[in-house]
Amino acid sequence: MAQPLVLGIETSCDETGIALVRGLDLLTDVTASSMDDHARFGGIVPEVASRAHLESFVPTLDAALERAEVSLADVDAIAVTAGPGLVGSLTVGVSAAKALALAIDRPLYGVNHVLGHVAVDALVHGAFPEEFLGLVVSGGHSSLLLVRDIATDVTELGQTLDDAAGEAFDKVGRLLGLPYPGGPHVDRLSQTGDRSAIAFPRGLSRAKDLARHPYDFSFSGLKTAVARVVEGYEDAGREVPAADIAASFSEAVADVLVTKTLNACAAHGVSTVVIGGGFSANSRLRDLAAERLDAAGITLRIPPIRYCTDNGAMIAALGSAVLAAGLPPSTLDITIDSGMPLTDVLAHV
Ligand code: KG4
Ligand code: ZN
């Protein structure tokens, strides 16, 4: 029998993403982004994002159905991001998903966005092994997960105690006078700098911190250290060596992420790592992870960038996994949960 056709809807931040997935086959995914509307404000403006979702929703849905050459009546189940994310943005997606579920009389699954960042890799690289680590790094999250089944058995080993990795890059981008979002600009600049020019701190990496927070991250001290270095040059009337700062900062972030991931692999006897989230575009993280995981005999899976940034395929993929696990659908009473914990794959009423 054919696998169920799942419609995935993602509206947790600034991307309206809609995708159709059958089993592990991605039929299509379409994304509309409102980032250009936010750039001039130097950050995401929630009201602007919500309105953009409302405007983009129907055209994005129509485009996805057309490209997949299916009609709404062919859809067997609807998966939608229920959290975490921006309240207004999530509300647009969940309300639309409820309306569609009611209209076509199909089950609705309100799923966890962060787990979707891991789930999507199965569409690209095939079924997951029995056990693996998921490192989700983006502008909003930095989490290390031990995954036995993405729908039913995920343990959060650690997360950031303050800034997310992408957020730290965006803040350093601002310190270096780069446009928002700073992450890709800092990355580009770092490629022309000296990684060992400045010995920036590695958060939560000293013996006493490691004992309490073996797999947690902290990037706010690092950001402050960058600010001090920049100020030092400015106060002395000297030119800020922006490329060296960007390279040394990138090295500090990538080093901590990869070191803690490797430590977790060793502690849990895991030999596959999946990295997801928009920050996985970072060139230093990619290079260092490839180099050090390969040396340790660990398989690294990173989906192409378009499936790392927010998209509908990740939500359809997680919906597909939830259906395969036979979990009961959400009711039409579910609300959004802007702080949805990783322990929940599905939203509760
Ligand atoms: O997953 P994503 O698209 O949105 C969130 O859910 O946050 O991630 C975007 C984040 C932003 O903070 C952006 O600056 C950062 O990822 N980012 C990068 C790079 N590309 C995107 N940071 C560093 N280097 C990059 N190449
Ligand atoms: Zn995300």
Notes on the protein architecture:
The protein is of the alpha/beta class. It has two domains: 5-120 and 311-324, ATPase, nucleotide binding domain (Nucleotidyltransferase, domain 5, 2-Layer Sandwich); 127-305, Nucleotidyltransferase, domain 5 (2-Layer Sandwich), CATH 3.30.420. It is built from twelve helices and ten strands. It has helices at residues 35-39, 46-68, 87-104, 113-119, 121-125, 165-175, 182-190, 207-212, 220-235, 242-268, 283-295, 312-324, and strands spanning 5-10, 15-22, 25-33, 77-83, 108-112, 132-137, 142-149, 153-159, 272-276, 299-301. The strands form two sheets. It has a five-stranded mixed β-sheet, sandwiched between helices. Strands 8-7-6-9-10 form a five-stranded mixed β-sheet, sandwiched between helices. α11 links the parallel β9 (272-276) and β10. α6 packs across α7. The two termini are 32 Å apart. The mean pLDDT is 96.
